[in-house]
Amino acid sequence: MALTGCYAFMKHVVTLLNVFYLSCGLLLMLLAIWMWVDPMFSISMAQDEASYYTGVYLILFVGVLLLIVGFLGCAAAISESQFSLVLYFCLLLTVLVAQISAAVWIYANNDKLEDLLRYTVKTTVQSEYSVIESRTETFDAIQSGLECCGASGPSDWAGSKYNNPQTESLGLALSSPEQSYKIPASCCRGDKCSSAQTAVASGPIPEFIYSEGCTEKILYTSRKSMIILLVILVAIGSVEFFGLVLALILCCAIRAVNTYKN
């Protein structure tokens, strides 16, 4: 005997919810891939890759699990299988717990991530730019994309290994206020530079060079991304909790129908 009345309506609602879960799973997987390849996120990986990858893997895991839950939920609702609904409930509960863990991890590590980001940007400018190719390409993309230069400003490049490859004590390389130093071409506005530019330690920075540092701009972008991510996780979690309740009701309804048939 098929479900009728309100229970039939609930079955259709559960099916629609699982289509939503499928969409959310795809979005979370895309988010994890974005965090993996986007320079704004990858700049934070240098000093603490383990913690960063933990978050990325957790989001990817939730996305894949949501895809599985979505397919299973659609099949369970359409077939009206009590066993499938119980399995669906357990998996959906696992997803909800994983999402709560991800949200708590992001919130709890927010201050540490910001401190890590400041330290990483400074380290990249001082000792990794032009030394590590991948870091150089990443930071060039950041400077061009966010229209910024250096960690706190263009003068950061004066004491960096980019200008002083043989210097161990960074920041002490310029002994004369008239000594010049190079600024990467990615610090230039538009297409005004095709190669590195030269500036004088005590002189003004050319107008076609971005004057703002990258640290605060990266932090601002990261904060917006974190807020969006937390809002998405809370919204999805609320819908999933609603799905758990409906799954329990449907499971009880199917059990009652099966008992009546027997």
TrEMBL record:
Name of this chain's protein: Tetraspanin
The family this protein is said to belong to: Belongs to the tetraspanin (TM4SF) family.
Compartmental location: Membrane
Recorded name of the encoding gene: Cd9
Native organism: Sipha flava
Keywords: Membrane, Transmembrane, Transmembrane helix
Matching Gene3D superfamilies: Tetraspanin
Pfam family of the protein (one): Tetraspanin
Recorded topology in the membrane: Multi-pass membrane protein
Lineage top rank: taxon: Eukaryota
GO CC annotation, single: plasma membrane
Residues that span the membrane, as ranges: 19-37, 57-79, 85-108, 227-257
PANTHER family reported in the protein's UniProt record: RE08073P-RELATED (PTHR19282:SF551), TETRASPANIN (PTHR19282)
Key word RNA-binding present: no
InterPro entries recorded: Tetraspanin/Peripherin, Tetraspanin_animals, Tetraspanin_EC2_sf
